[in-house]
Amino acid sequence: MADTLRPQWPAELIEKAAAIRLLALDVDGIMTDGTLLFSASGDEMKGFNILDGLGIKQVMAAGINVAVITGRRSPLTEKRMNDLGIPHLMQGREDKKIALRELAARLEIAPNQIAYMGDDLPDLPAIRYAGLGITVPNGYWLVRQHADFCTSAAGGSGAVREACELLLCACGQLNASLQPYLEQD
Fold first, then answer.
1. pTM score > 0.70 for this model?
2. 8-17 b/e with 16+ CB inside 10 Å = b?
3. What are phi and psi of 67, to 5 degrees?
4. Four-point Cα dihedral 12, 137, 47, 158, nearest 10
5. Cα dihedral 165, 172, 54, 79 in deg (nearest 10)
6. Most-buried pick from 42, 50, 135, 178 (CB within 10 A)?
7. Angle at 107 between CA 151 and CA 78, to 5 degrees
8. Model confidence over 18-54: pLDDT tens digits?
């Protein structure tokens, strides 16, 4: 794999990311593009990016906890998180910083060991609380201003995968997570 194709992150960002033991994610605007779709009968529809799913699985395989904290309640979100094996799903939580603090206490994880990824004002307190705040280029301007890292990919378009690769690189697991796909018969 050509190193020129790999993302290059600043040393101070890698240093913050190396301490991470918990990646907490918002859903709408991060794992999806933020569009809410409803059928004529009122059924909700969401589009999740498959790139993000594999990145989440790779991060969990590397020993990093993953959680989802969302202000909305959705059976589709619950299904997707179950499919991915995400053990910590907190729905209906507009108080995302409080939810994150509760989870951190339960997991005995310090704030500097948390990466939180969100895109809008309800995410801002959690982004500021976490040791590594991550957002997306289509996120609200004030959130982008306070985040430590803004992905190049938009929410719902592989942004979570990008954040996962940053964490994998920082903990020295990126190459190992990619190696099975490079092995030849």
1. yes
2. ebeeebeebb
3. -135, 155
4. -40
5. -100
6. 135
7. 60
8. 999 999 999 999 999 988 888 898 888 888 999 999 9
